[in-house]
Amino acid sequence: MQPHQLNPIIEPQFDAVTDFILNHLGSNVPLVEKMGHYIVESGGKRLRPLLVLLSANACQYSGSNHIQLAAVIEFIHTATLLHDDVVDNSELRRGNATANAKWGNAPSVLVGDFLYSRAFQIMVEIGRMEIMQVISHATTIIAEGEVLQLLNQRNPDITEDAYMQVILGKTAMLFEAATECGAILAEASSESQEAMRLYGRHLGIAFQVIDDVMDYQSSSEEMGKNVGDDLAEGKATLPLIYAMRTGTQDERDVLRQAIRKGGIEHLQSVLDIVARTQAIDYALEQARHQSDLAIAALDAIPNSSFKDTLITLAKMATQRKH
């Protein structure tokens, strides 16, 4: 079951978001439109726009601007994917060739810029300064998080705190913006807005930790990307950080060399060390802790089917395989 199918009231709203997105990919430049459609239609779960809808409904919003707001969040997310795949030289996403693999790096960067700009056009139409403030702040932090991750590549000495700072920026900030802006749009109380902000933040962290776990335990078919991609790029994610901290000196030496060199030459040795140190179990425990914090934040939100769906999503985030 797809996440948007968890709540029958949300399904038609989710379909309206999809229609709105497709109707706003138009451009006088055919390649922009072609690439925009390709990346938007490539099979993502659209979790972030779904969070906008659920947050707004959980805070008893009765208008229609949440459809546009959800599209804004998806356009921004799609732009970051285009840019990320260029930075990482990725060739596979969601089981499909990346846009940069099909059309090259330069068009991918420029179409990403177009989608960012389209998102801000739509925000202006919504006309809520508080929402523009939250999203403009979030996009700044996201960009900083990506740069920080780039600086940390091939660095075997990255700490768990530094890792958390990266994933807060590159992933959790957009989750946080999605849920907080849904509450702002609904003119919810400051307490409810803060509750939704914290829910999005902790859910986003849990989501990214699980993403990083899957790089060491899922198949390419399940993930839609290549196993060991993070290691190939020299990224020290939570499983490696914990394995470095708890492994033997010989194991640490192997991991340090693998992170510094990048590539997947040492992938099997790394997988063996990750298994021996129970690093996956530790990472899963941290993800579940973040999921629990997300659910606890919802105590300030009135009970409803939408709140129930948000709770279910937080639980599903730590159980997913792709």
Give an account of the 3D structure.
InterPro entries: Isoprenoid_synthase_dom_sf, Polyprenyl_synt, Polyprenyl_synt_CS. Keywords: Magnesium, Metal-binding, Transferase. Belongs to the FPP/GGPP synthase family. It contains 16 helices and two strands. A hairpin with a 2-residue loop joins strand 1 (92-93) and strand 2 (96-97). Helix 3 packs antiparallel against helix 16 (305-317), helix 4 runs antiparallel to helix 6 and helix 9 (190-214) packs antiparallel against helix 15. The chain has helices at residues 10-23, 30-40, 47-58, 65-88, 99-103, 105-126, 129-152, 160-185, 190-214, 220-223, 229-232, 238-246, 249-261, 267-276, 279-297, 305-317; strands spanning 92-93, 96-97. It has a two-stranded antiparallel sheet with strand order 1-2. 48% of the residues are buried. The chain has a single domain (10-317), classed as Farnesyl Diphosphate Synthase. It has 322 residues and is mostly helical. It is globular. Helix content is 73%, strand content 1%.
The radius of gyration over CA amounts to: 19 Å
- Per the CATH scheme, the topology name is Farnesyl Diphosphate Synthase
Instruction: Let me know the CATH homologous superfamily.
Output: Farnesyl Diphosphate Synthase
> How do the SSEs run, as a string of H and E?
HHHHEEHHHHHHHHHHHH
Overall 3D geometry? globular
Number of strands: 2
Summed up, the domain count is 1
Main beta sheet: 2 strands, antiparallel
Proportion of residues in helical segments: over 70%
Low-confidence stretches: 220-224
Question: Class, according to the CATH hierarchy?
Answer: Mainly Alpha
What's the CATH architecture? Orthogonal Bundle
The percentage of residues in β strands lies in under 5%
Structural class: mainly alpha
